[in-house]
Every structure is written in structure tokens, then in C-alpha cells.
Design a protein that fits this description.
single chain; mainly alpha
């Protein structure tokens, strides 16, 4: 049986492990994970894809995850984990930050058992923490759609990323949903052009297929994270 953290994943994660733990001041943590060059950004892009592909292969879940998180990472941070919304100066506890632009109250929830981590919002600068929270967020969107009688695609999950209440606007009636789709499509082409990712834009219409999600406790163990 393949070990939870494969050699390939360990190699891809070496940059993160060398940069140390995620405790400490906001500026100190951000500097540990800051991408200062295009090459750094490429390394974090490869980390996103390596973690995503490992997860999908290990659990037979979310086959489009690597492409989705690649595009989201491009939109939200340009693959720089140290990015934070300017709001952080006046709202340090809940401003969006990290690779996928999470607010701590969105990432750390009672639903995933991580609510206690809201007191340490800077964990989200660590790409592994952002990744496991992103996997749960995708699973939660897909599960919510299923409970409402829908089958979620990646376009729906992207709407959920912005406003969960827009998840079930599958007919794209609202202006928010239309704008979200346009930005999503544009980002695919820009990411491919600037980073050579070769993401097929048609992936976004595929079903998420989150069955097989193992639970957050298992993911934390897989990625050597502790509450």
C-alpha cells in the first residue's frame, strides 16, 4: 500500500519543510513562505498540483482538484502564499490570506473540527494548511449541492468560494455568478499563458465527485499537520 505521504509528495513539499513551522508573528510567518521570484511561484504551483494529484489518486476523489486549485491559486495569490488582503491592517484576525484567499473563519470551522484554530489565523500562510482547508471547502460545497438535489461542477464551487449562497445559481442568473464565470475562464487562459499549466478550460464543467473524502483528521495526519 502507498504510504500517506509518498516520496513524490515529500520531494515537492521540501521547500515548505525547510521554511519551518508556521507559528510566530504575522510578518515572520509571511516571510517564511514568501515567493520572491517567478521560480518561487512555480515551486508553489507545483506543490499545489502535487498535493492535489496525490489526494485524488489516494482517495479516488475530486479528479479535477489539481486544475481547480491551480486556477484558484492563480486568481487569489499568483502562487505567493504570503499574500494577504489589504484589509489585514484593520482586520488581522479574519482578512483573507494565503494561496487560496481564505478568511480564517471560512477555513477554520466547527464543520471541519478546526474552529479552535481561528486564534492562529496565520496558519493559512502555510500552503499545506491552506490545501487541507481547500479540500474540505470543495467537499462541503459538493455535499451541500447534493443535499439540495444538485450535482456540483467546478464553476459552482468557484461561486461558493466567493459567496456560498450563490452555489445553486446553476443557471447563472445573477450578475455575481456571470462575473465569477468570466473571471474563472479568463484566469485559466492567463495561467496557462504565464505559467505553462495547460489546464483544459472544459474541466470547470465537470462534476466535482468528492466521494471518498476521508475526513479532516485523516488529512491532517496525511500532511503531517496538528491542531
Amino acid at each position: 500500500m502507498v504510504e500517506p505521504v509518498t516520496l513524490a509528495l515529500a520531494a515537492a513539499a521540501s521547500l515548505l519543510l525547510l521554511k519551518g513551522k508556521s507559528g510566530g508573528s504575522s510578518s515572520g510567518v509571511r516571510n517564511k513562505f514568501k515567493a520572491t521570484s517567478h521560480q518561487d511561484r512555480l515551486k508553489y504551483l507545483e506543490e499545489i498540483r502535487s498535493m492535489s494529484q496525490w489526494y485524488s489518486n489516494r482517495y479516488g476523489s475530486m479528479p479535477g482538484l489539481a486544475d481547480f486549485l491551480t486556477v484558484v491559486g492563480f486568481i487569489e495569490s499568483r502562487f505567493n502564499p504570503a499574500v494577504a488582503n489589504p484589509e489585514i491592517s484593520r482586520n488581522p484576525s479574519n482578512a483573507a490570506r494565503g494561496l487560496f484567499g481564505f478568511r480564517p473563519r471560512t477555513a477554520f470551522r466547527s464543520k471541519n473540527g478546526l474552529e479552535s484554530l481561528r486564534s492562529n489565523p496565520n496558519l493559512l500562510y502555510n500552503p499545506r494548511w491552506s490545501f487541507v482547508c481547500a479540500v474540505f471547502h470543495v467537499y462541503d460545497a459538493d455535499r451541500t449541492a447534493s443535499q439540495k438535489g444538485y450535482q456540483a461542477d467546478w464553476v459552482a464551487v468557484r461561486r461558493w468560494w466567493g459567496y456560498p449562497s450563490k452555489l445553486d445559481d446553476f443557471d447563472l442568473i445573477e450578475e455575481f455568478s456571470q462575473n465569477s464565470l468570466r473571471k474563472f475562464e479568463t484566469a485559466v487562459f492567463e495561467c496557462n499563458d504565464q505559467y505553462g499549466t495547460n489546464v483544459d478550460p472544459d474541466f470547470m464543467w465537470n462534476s466535482v465527485r468528492s466521494g471518498g473524502f476521508p475526513g479532516m483528521e485523516v488529512l491532517l495526519k496525511d500532511f503531517n499537520l496538528r491542531k
